[in-house]
């Protein structure tokens, strides 16, 4: 027999013997995922720029005010930032 075939068959036999010797293997239970917070809301804005100097100035100004550059194509720069959380409505007047 070919040496490689003998080695492969020997490995298979050895692997099967180890599997039989260790017994049954059980998977661990997975805990259900914890309830997640609501997905964040984003503001988006795109702006056309003409040239590298203008694009650099726009990116710097937007970055300083919390915007993140997410796309750039043919001079159009698109930004996003977290939308401000709307204030909770005031409790209604109790009426007394």
TrEMBL record:
Alphabetic keyword roster: Signal
Position of the signal peptide: 1-21
Name of the protein in its database record: Secreted protein
